[in-house]
Amino acid sequence: MGNCKFSNTRDERFFEDYEVGCVYEFGSIGVEEAEIIEFAKRFDPQIFHTDPEAAKTTVYGGLIASGWHTSSLMMRLFADHFLPSAASLGSPGVDELRWIKPVRPGDELAVRVTIMDAKRSNSKPDRGIITSFVEVINGDKKTVMTMKAVNFLLCRDAG
């Protein structure tokens, strides 16, 4: 199916608006050095995330964002652009989370989401389950993170 665009706003979207094979791209969000350090000091205190000078001596050759920070930046874009405002019912989790390339201060990230599967729940017919392949892409068009996301969405037709 390839690149798609939603025909309605996030406020108007329901399970039925997410078609298997559709690919959506959106972004961007900037990565700032101060945020990398602040996040890491609180949640992932390793020197390649917290100390720009010491990070130069590591295998990364400089400061990099925590993978969990990268995941959080992805989630911001995913929630702002992909998930429906009122019809999103959360997620039971993600699969195959991979941090492929370091994310550095000054990077601009975008997200590409491919809908892999969409099925209506048998036990709760007012909702559906979508599985998506999510790619986080930097300004050099390199994939820096991937994961498979599972989301529960309300159906427009509660049938």
What do we call the CATH homologous superfamily?
Answer: Hotdog Thioesterase
Strand and helix order: EEHHHHEEEE
Structure classification? alpha+beta
When the domains are counted, the total is: 1
Taking all Cα atoms into account, the compactness measure Rg is 17 Å
* Residue-averaged pLDDT: 96
Give the low-pLDDT segments. Answer: none
Largest sheet: 6 strands, mixed
Shape: elongated
Please estimate the helix content. 10-25%
Strand content: 25-35%
What distinguishing features does this structure have?
6 strands; 159 residues; Thiol Ester Dehydrase, Chain A; six-stranded mixed β-sheet; elongated; 4 helices; alpha+beta
Structural description of this entry:
By secondary structure, the chain is an alpha+beta fold. The protein has a single domain, classed as Hotdog Thioesterase (Thiol Ester Dehydrase, Chain A), CATH 3.10.129.10. The protein contains four helices and six strands, in the order ββααααββββ. The protein has helices spanning 33-43, 47-50, 52-55, 67-82; strands at 2-3, 22-30, 93-99, 108-120, 127-137, 143-154. It has a six-stranded mixed beta sheet with strand order 1-2-4-5-6-3, with helices on one face. A hairpin with a 5-residue loop joins β5 and β6. The chain is elongated, with a radius of gyration of 17 Å. The mean pLDDT is 96.
